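Regression test attached.
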Amino acid sequence: MTLYGQAIISGVLIGGLYAMMSLGVSLSWGVLKIINLAYFSFILLAGYGSYELAATQGWDPFVTVVAVVPVAVVAGALLQLFFEKVNIGEFESLLVTFGLFIMFESVASSVWSADFRRIPSTANPYASSSLKIGGFAFATPQLSAFITAIVVGLLVKFLLDRTYFGKAVRALAQDREMARAFGVDHRRVAVLLAGLASATAAIAGVFIAMSQALFPGLAVEWFGIVFPVVILGGLGSTLGALGAGVTIGVVAAVASVTWGPSYAPLATFVILIATLLFRPEGLFTRKASV
Amino acid sequence: MTRSSRSQFPKGLILLVAFAMIAAACGSSTTDTTAGATPDTTAAAGTPDTTAASSTPDTTAAAAPSGDPIVIGSTLALTGFLAPTAAIHKVAGDLFVKQLNDNGGLLGRQVEWVVLDDESVPDTAASLYERLITEDGVDAIIGPYGTGTITAAMQVAERYGYVMPQHTGSLTYTYGYDCQFPSWPAGRNPNVTNSELLYDALESTGTPPASIAFVINQFPGTMYVAYGQPDTDEGGAVSIAEDRGYNVVLDINYPSNTTDWGPIAAQVRDADPDFLFLGALGVDGPNLIAAMDALDYQVPGMFLQWPAPGPMLGAGDSADGAMSVTAFEPHPPFTDDPGYAAIAQAFSDAATAAGLPYTAFETQASASWAAWQILVAGIEGAGSLDQAAACDYLLNNTIDTVFGPVDFDPEQNNYYGDLSYIKQIQDGDWVVVWPANGAPDGVSVQYSPEG
């Protein structure tokens, strides 16, 4: 039981990290109808930024978030402004952001080389630390990501449900032209939402830098995590992303200890395929998202 | 509502630019290494006499190369998941070619190394080698980095009869091409010899482990070392451990892209082995160590198959005593040869200039160096660029490499025996500990089941 309990805890916590990684893509795709692969690059580059500040400048890894998030917000907002200027559609966004994704990988390789970069343990005491409760361990980076995912998810949900900005976002998601007709400034709302989504990506990047090594090709490995989370959680659903992340994390962890770690991806994709077949709107949403 | 024509033009332009970006980024990159991007390494100590087991051909009074350059083609994983380690091979190859050219070139001609990006994809590597040979008409080739790409490229080399030195192919039993020459000195049967070497090292302490846990990356090479060749009784690390009386308390495999190490760490903790055999690649080691540390659990000892050595040194106190396999380390007795000491320093300088975080001239870099030595020896021995003549020369002569003199054995897929050593993290750095002839004075295996 201890083994299963610890594995489930590990799965729940890493589900929070998965949710943080997926939130930006989910919001962008669900609301703005932009499949923004550049968010994967934002996660990676934020991770590199955190690495640089922690490993070479001696910043506490948690504190690096105050530097990388504002940069990501501005970058995401500018990118969205560009998309708005050229009136980019869903398919075109996939193509353009894939090009940006490749470009950013080259940038990362040029600046930090293709080799692994890991914040050394002397600068990152959190990688190996954990909170112990009742004989179970809650690894610090993953626990922090999980708590942050809950807080951010609730904040974003509050923003979307209880503020004028949120109403505007939901209106645009439901019917862009009608929302415009009622005076919603689509461009301004989209830019602000993109900045918010980029901030979540940057936060995820900080937690990733805290828990694993970085290399330029790392971001492509997240496709197999983020897209299942986005689909299972429902496009544009913030708490759905958290629920989906936790579901995937737990399913993979239980499969790992039951049949072996090699079965974890199989279990994850069985869930994904079943969802697509029987509940394509996602496990955690009603028919309409956001 | 129709979109205005004014918004169509910039969108179309954006799409065109996007296609161009993707095509440029996904398309193969070429690098002319004769540009000398690496630091000047023409110090005399770096180019010793080849009558010793030394670095580059004896050219102490060499004339400057002249005539058309000899073009040597290859791919490397300049992008993709293999890129971190391929970067080491790029630096090593650039340095070798520069030193070769600074010392008279090859057959009196300058050498140009054309490197294309196979993006860590075997199919891409195969098509690029096809292009290098049939369209670009390169004079010779050298293998890429990584088992998958090497295996794919070898088919092309065999089809066109090109000599192919290769440094990192791990599926040794599949390499039946007569003119492929492996430089990684793990021998034809690393599944047996690697394991025996490790267990010998552990038993040399007088306090070997009673129980071993096996956690194996599903990468074909690590699976081969752990379990042996499929559909044979050869066995590997797991079965040999059982044969030698060790109690195997855990035997699990994990996907290469594992992100959640918590469940694996929990399984290891519950198995509570005296020793952990981690069939690891890249940064699997630090990831698992961190996950085990989070559980307040440390194994008394561990072995990692093919880790990225740098990140292990930054993995904290729990990584102390971790072992791996190596063929060359930049310390005595390997650097007793002043030529190789100079090469090690030159590589370190070049790797630093290239921005690599770990700059030691160790296994990967030395295997790359040896592959180049093999290629050069074959061409020089043949006295021409004739591939059949070069292949024949390599098969029938002793070749000096950074690992010592080697004789390729066609009965063993041209492998020349296991010249590996066990290295261990001691006092914050990697050092060879076994066999004793590879260890510095006073250094030996440190292991106890009590930790």
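Expected vs. actual: identical. Residues 29-186+333-412 of chain B form a domain with the Rossmann fold fold (CATH 3.40.50.2300).
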